[in-house]
Amino acid sequence: MTRLPQLLILAAFAAMAALAPAGPPTTGPAASRPAAHAVIITGLGNDKAYSRNLLDWAGRCRAVLTAKCGLAPANVAILTETADPKADPPRARATVENVRAAFAKAKARVGPRDQFILFLAGHGQINEELGKLCLPGRDLRADQLEEMLADLPTNHIVIINAASGGAEFLKNTLKAGRVILTGCGYETEGNQSYFAEFVLRAFETGEADRLKGYGNRDGAVDLFEAYCYAARWTANWYHRQYRADSYRPGGRPQQPDDPHLYWVVRGRETRKIWDRLYAGTRHRSVRPAFRPVRDKATGKLVTTDPLPADLDAEADFEPKWGRFDKHWHFRRMLAETARLDDTDAARDGLFLWQPYKFKPCPPDPAPGEPTWLARRTVLGRPERPAKIKPHGK
Ligand SMILES: [Ca+2]
């Protein structure tokens, strides 16, 4: 063979290679490697500030999945209280019909070894027998959601349910092979849940992988680590807030017609998050005015301010736990719990901070035991490794 035909053949191969797809398909049942898919649903906010937070969480969830976890943008559907087809990415309105359409689309693309991620945030309706997520128009019932999940060709499912009343959804969705993180409001609260903020931060900061006593420092945030981080931060965030009942704007007692609630918020990051989440509400973060007290020895009035000079510079120290004492006075009540389920038995659900105490990291569990699956589940990595670095070092 002469030199020229050789070059022609090589050129022909090069042209064929250019025409061929760049690699194996990355999605769908035909894909040689399993892929990950996600549906993000945030419901009605019922107030301007919370609606803003829900929208923020939906966008950040997508950013985490695509930028941090490697999901193809086309594999992530995003449904929010209001539609915005011009947004990047376009958002559909979170109606039951659109949720069904998103699941139908996912069903057509998801393969049996693929990972499916569902993120929920908003208000759960818990006053009726069935759990519901409040959506524009008709609400999404827990049994409808389970039908859609069960209809997917995979049971490699991760659910992050940051909606209030999320525990009601658990009754329907708890199945072997799934990992479910639930941030659920107390039944009597059924109110605004902030668990979503801290789940997202677990991935955004990557700190969950390095969480002392829980992370395994392997460079990836698994669902066990994300849960430990989010549960701890949610509890700490509440417990770094104190009602400033003695606060007197301008030194005067609070007037009866003053609609604001005044809070002392401790910790640098906590304060930043607080300011963002509560912007535009009646809550105000303040430095309280302390009343002067007469010193018994000198007879002089002395004002003691126990707070650090610069509240914004204070580290986010671990709040004091344990028996009720003065540290509990005026503390914000923890209105949420959070749980991790990765078996099909509700009794296995892990509550990290009950009663107001963080349990030590469970020892290396056997397959099928609580936390075994969650420790091997990483968003965007459908293949679960058999061997992993031990947690809790
Ligand atoms: Ca890790």
What attributes does this structure have?
3-stranded antiparallel sheet; Rossmann fold; binds calcium ion; alpha/beta; disordered N terminus; 16 strands
Description:
By secondary structure, this protein is an alpha/beta fold. The protein folds into 2 domains: 244 residues, Rossmann fold; 78 residues, no CATH class. 28% of the residues lie in helices and 16% in strands. It contains 9 helices and 16 strands. Helix 2 packs parallel to helix 6 and helix 6 crosses helix 7. Bound molecules: calcium ion.
**Shape, per Cα inertia axes:** globular
Strand order, main sheet: write it out: 3-2-1-4-8-9-15-16
CATH class of the largest domain: Alpha Beta
Distinct compounds present: calcium ion
Q: Based on the structure given, which CATH architecture of the largest domain is correct?
A: 3-Layer(aba) Sandwich
The count of DSSP E runs of length 2 or more, i.e. the number of strands, is: 16
> What count of domains describes the coordinates?
2
Sheet/helix structural class: alpha/beta
Overall average pLDDT: 86
Spans with pLDDT under 50 lasting ≥5 residues?
1-26
* Helix and strand sequence: HEHEEHEEEEHEHEHHEEHEEEEEH
Helix percent band = 25-40%
Task: Draw up the topology in text.
Elements: H1 3-19, E1 36-42, H2 48-68, E2 76-80, E3 92-93, H3 96-109, E4 115-121, E5 124-125, E6 132-133, E7 140-141, H4 142-150, E8 157-161, H5 166-173, E9 178-185, H6 195-205, H7 223-239, E10 241-243, E11 261-265, H8 268-277, E12 283-285, E13 293-294, E14 301-302, E15 336-341, E16 350-351, H9 372-375
Parallel strand pairs: 1-2, 1-4, 2-3, 4-8, 8-9, 11-12
Antiparallel strand pairs: 5-6, 6-7, 9-15, 10-11, 13-14, 15-16
Helix pairs in contact: 2-6, 4-5, 6-7
Calcium ion is lined by residues 209, 215-216, 218, 220-222, 225.
